[in-house]
């Protein structure tokens, strides 16, 4: 091929030609439009991105590419156009043609095979097919590391969550493409693998990891691919916010492109910006200014996907930037030389004007089809099959019915269904940051799957879809009929209705099975495998990594035993399956406020961010100060507290934290939590072991308690997620805790306090029993209150009352007195959000902006206990309304009190089980179950 870099054509000295070479553009339509012709002929455009909106068949693609190159040749272009395509396989294929183009698994699906050789072969086959139709560059491989795998939109487009494994498979794919004769473009630098989304479509997704964290994780595959000869790099359009960098758009920042990518990582190839037509970017900066900023930052090719008017605006903006002296001609020449060097690797006029076309694809197709079948079969992964339900051919009798339940999801951009619908949707490249799968009317996506299963079952198949409307009567009827149910999910972690539906169906099947009816449930994730990867309540769980027609065909063969699935989930979960982790002893150190405070704050925020959407995080609103009680006891001595950490002494990062307190002969563990990235490594076990040993060394310990009301962060084991709560209880049971008689504690709330009205008859009921209710502040009559609490509650609740009495401005105590002798029969704390107590009760901050609180009702058991509690709560609600609170939170409600308060209009915000045990029963040795702590608590 030609090597134009050595002796540049004089034409490149003309500014218009040099500028045109620095743009990468797309267009609408399956034929050459006047707009794209104008860009090539009049503006000397040098690179084109084709997407699904341009491509119908392999033959049409080859003709379109050849026509574009002919236009450029006739217009006097010294070198051919760079013509690129997204062809990631799985769900992201711009070119679809059943007759000539083979479908292969997604990046994660290929990695699930465990074979780097297959990764190379698949990429090589894909590259050869693109080469045959005239494409000379592929927008790949994807090198993102799924640092937060469950909730990121990239999903199966990325290899997985292990940086080294992503590197290995990315480099294998890169070499496969290059050996097929096309150039490569890694993406999405510096990583789309752990993004925060802040709300509206104009909000930029944000990277919050520090450069050190990125360097140890997300940047590893990019660094390794650069070392192995990556040709080009796409720089993302995300923001970066950390201690050392505050970048609004990565591709417009010289800190990211020049400093990080070129200087730190040593990349010398072509850098490509994210599409500057992204709504957030164009809204924040504008395309003209954005184009200048991208080139200033170090981008060689500026991408603009479709709007001709915007593309002209970008060209004029770059010209104006040069005329104004913001960008030098020399800077443009630097990019030009990189681009020409890239083109010299993959194209020449001989090749560009004479694509191999259909004849070559016909030759390649049989071998590629066999490779596709082999790879899909090897990618199918059975994560669990507790009941040995698979293959169905062994467990489902011929006369029994099989039910298929499928979600309504939008077809993949390049698929038979989409081709039939001709939907005209924007490409995935243009809308990479999908937050949830779109819902479509119709059931075309999984119709062929149903037909394939019906053929296997000779018609003994029931098939219906499900939506956000949940389990309907039709589903219940079909579940009752069927002996086995195959339930499909597609990104259930981001489409929460699928998660809820699946758990509901699983519960129904469990109940029906317990009643003697055969109900075999097989859950199949056809996109992100993380839907139920860690949920052992789903006993049989299969992953396919995409829902293309080819993947669904492989699934049917796997379900009915035509081959034995050998796939494994890539990344850290595969490693945990392959190797039985040793039970490590982690060095546990005592908490040091000055040293560890910042690390604890970062750990809390990390756990908050990784909490499943829609699930309560008990740490929400808490800070490092929330655990440092330092409150005086009734004797004037401080409550004894000792906290522990597992940390990285080099970086000062905390991997885990545990808080303990001692008062009045009770040793209490207030919280144990571990960095989500460090779970399953025995950190929680090491902390628990050290905490128990520390408590038992204190003189006079009569009881150990798990969970406490002050600090009121974890009142016990969180039970909002019942399956996870049950798992945690088993873990503690294996370490000596008594789980047979936990104390149930609740946090309740009234969210719209201004509209709340007491239930009919409540006031009359309270008045009939003649209890006297009053409100006190400060130390007045405090001794009687403290005596009452001391006799009927634990020491931490007593300290909570003492703190409330010390804060008369924001706190008060409501007392209920017997009409007979004036003795106290109940007390409760009421307070405003601004009380210092909120430090130790973070729910007051997490529940909203204007919160009033009712805390720790202490009502001894009696025939009138319910009416006393209602009276205390009623007075507390009235005080909160008087202070114009929007929300009322009622904390530390005991189990037998919950229903009474729910009848007043409260809802459950969170639920806990407080455990206790005798000191001699708790394990101090390093043993227990293999079910190591993996969630927020413990």
TrEMBL record:
InterPro entries: Acyl_CoA_acyltransferase, GH, Glyco_hydro_3_C_sf, Glyco_hydro_3_N, Glyco_hydro_3_N_sf, NagZ_Beta-hexosaminidase
Top-level taxon of the source organism: Eukaryota
Pfam families for this protein: Glyco_hydro_3
Domain Glycoside hydrolase family 3 N-terminal: 34-342
Keywords carried by this UniProt record: Glycoprotein, Glycosidase, Hydrolase
Single Gene Ontology MF annotation: hydrolase activity, hydrolyzing O-glycosyl compounds
GO biological process: carbohydrate metabolic process; peptidoglycan turnover
Similarity field: Belongs to the glycosyl hydrolase 3 family.
Record protein name field: Beta-hexosaminidase
Organism placement in taxonomy: Eukaryota, Fungi, Dikarya, Ascomycota, Pezizomycotina
């Amino acid at each position: 091929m030609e090597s134009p870099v050595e002796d540049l054509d004089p034409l490149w000295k003309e500014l218009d030609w040099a500028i045109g070479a620095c743009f990468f553009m797309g267009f609408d339509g399956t034929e050459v439009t006047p707009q794209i012709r104008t860009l090539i002929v009049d503006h000397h455009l040098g690179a084109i991105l084709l997407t699904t909106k341009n491509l119908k068949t392999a033959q049409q693609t080859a003709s379109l590419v050849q026509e574009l190159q002919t236009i450029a040749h006739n217009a006097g272009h010294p070198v051919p156009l760079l013509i690129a395509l997204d062809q990631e396989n799985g769900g992201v294929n711009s070119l679809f043609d059943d007759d000539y183009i083979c479908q292969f698994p997604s990046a994660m699906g290929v990695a699930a095979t465990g074979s780097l050789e297959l990764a190379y072969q698949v990429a090589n086959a894909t590259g050869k097919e693109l080469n045959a139709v005239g494409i000379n560059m592929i927008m790949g491989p994807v090198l993102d590391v799924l640092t937060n795998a469950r909730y990121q939109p990239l999903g199966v487009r990325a290899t997985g969550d292990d940086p080294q494994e992503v590197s290995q498979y990315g480099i294998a794919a890169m070499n496969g493409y290059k050996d097929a004769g096309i150039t490569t473009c890694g993406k999405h630098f510096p990583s789309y693998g752990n993004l925060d989304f802040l709300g509206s479509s104009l909000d930029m997704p944000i990277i919050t990891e520090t450069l050190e964290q990125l360097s140890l994780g997300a940047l590893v595959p990019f660094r390794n691919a650069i070392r192995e000869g990556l040709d080009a790099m796409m720089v993302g359009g995300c923001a970066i916010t950390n201690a050392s960098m505050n970048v609004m758009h990565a591709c417009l920042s010289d800190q990211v492109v020049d400093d990080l990518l070129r200087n730190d990582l040593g990349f010398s190839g072509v850098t490509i910006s994210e599409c500057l037509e992204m709504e957030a970017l164009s809204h924040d900066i504008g395309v003209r200014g954005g184009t200048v900023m991208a080139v200033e930052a170090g981008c060689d090719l500026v991408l603009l996907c479709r709007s001709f008017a915007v593309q002209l605006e970008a060209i004029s903006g770059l010209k104006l930037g040069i005329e104004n002296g913001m960008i030098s001609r020399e800077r443009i020449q630097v990019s030009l030389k990189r681009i020409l060097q890239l083109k010299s690797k993959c194209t020449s006029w001989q090749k560009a004007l004479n694509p191999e076309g259909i004849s070559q694809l016909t030759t390649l197709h049989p071998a590629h089809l066999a490779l596709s079948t082999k790879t899909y079969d090897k990618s199918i992964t059975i994560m669990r099959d507790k009941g040995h339900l698979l293959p169905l051919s062994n467990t489902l009798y011929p006369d029994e019915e099989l039910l298929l339940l499928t979600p309504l999801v939008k077809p993949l951009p390049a698929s038979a269904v989409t081709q039939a619908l001709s939907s005209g949707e924007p490409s995935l490249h243009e809308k990479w940051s999908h937050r949830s799968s779109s819902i479509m009317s119709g059931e075309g996506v999984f119709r062929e799957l149903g037909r394939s299963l019906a053929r296997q079952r000779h018609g003994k198949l029931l098939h219906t879809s499900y939506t956000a409307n949940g389990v309907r009567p039709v589903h219940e009827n079909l579940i009752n009929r069927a002996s086995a149910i195959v339930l499909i999910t597609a990104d259930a972690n981001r489409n929460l209705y699928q998660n809820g539906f699946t758990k509901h169906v699983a519960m129904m099947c469990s109940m029906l099975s317990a009643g003697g009816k055969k109900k075999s449930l097989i859950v199949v994730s056809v996109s992100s495998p993380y839907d139920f990867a860690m949920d052992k309540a789903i006993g049989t769980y299969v992953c396919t990594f995409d829902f293309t027609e080819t993947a669904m065909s492989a699934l049917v063969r796997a379900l009915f035993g035509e081959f034995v699935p050998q796939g494994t989930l890539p990344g850290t979960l595969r490693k945990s399956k392959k190797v039985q982790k040793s039970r490590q002893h982690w060095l546990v150190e005592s908490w040091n406020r000055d040293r560890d405070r910042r690390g604890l704050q970062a750990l809390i925020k990390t756990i908050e961010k990784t909490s499943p959407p829609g699930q309560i995080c008990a740490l929400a609103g808490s800070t490092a100060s929330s655990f440092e009680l330092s409150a005086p006891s009734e004797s004037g001595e401080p409550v004894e507290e000792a906290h522990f950490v597992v940390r990285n002494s080099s970086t000062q990062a905390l991997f885990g934290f545990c808080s303990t307190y001692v008062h009045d002969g009770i040793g209490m563990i207030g919280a144990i939590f571990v960095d989500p990235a460090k779970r399953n490594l025995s950190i929680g076990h090491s902390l628990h072991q050290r905490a128990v040993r520390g408590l038992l060394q204190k003189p006079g310990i009569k009881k150990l308690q798990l969970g406490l009301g002050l600090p009121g962060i974890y009142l016990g084991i969180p039970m909002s997620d019942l399956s996870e709560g049950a798992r945690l209880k088993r873990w503690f049971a294996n370490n000596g805790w008594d789980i047979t008689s936990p104390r149930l504690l609740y946090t309740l709330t009234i969210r719209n306090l201004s509209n709340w009205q007491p239930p009919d008859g409540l006031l009359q009921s309270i008045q009939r029993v003649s209890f006297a209710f009053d409100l006190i502040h400060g130390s007045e009559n405090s001794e009687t209150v403290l005596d009452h609490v001391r006799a009927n509650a634990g020491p931490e609740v007593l300290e909570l009352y003492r703190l409330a009495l010390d804060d008369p401005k924001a706190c008060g105590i409501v007392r209920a007195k017997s009409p007979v002798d004036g003795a106290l029969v109940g007390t409760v704390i009421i307070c405003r959000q601004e009380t210092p107590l909120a430090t130790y009760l973070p729910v007051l901050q997490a529940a909203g902006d204007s919160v009033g609180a009712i805390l720790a009702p202490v009502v001894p058991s009696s025939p009138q206990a319910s009416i006393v509690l209602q009276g205390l709560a009623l007075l507390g609600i009235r005080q909160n309304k008087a202070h114009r609170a929007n929300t009322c939170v009622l904390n530390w409600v005991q189990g037998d009190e919950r229903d009474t308060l729910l009848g007043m209009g409260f809802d459950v915000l969170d639920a806990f089980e407080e455990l206790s045990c005798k000191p001699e029963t708790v394990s101090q040795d390093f043993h227990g179950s293999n079910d190591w702590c993996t969630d927020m608590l413990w």
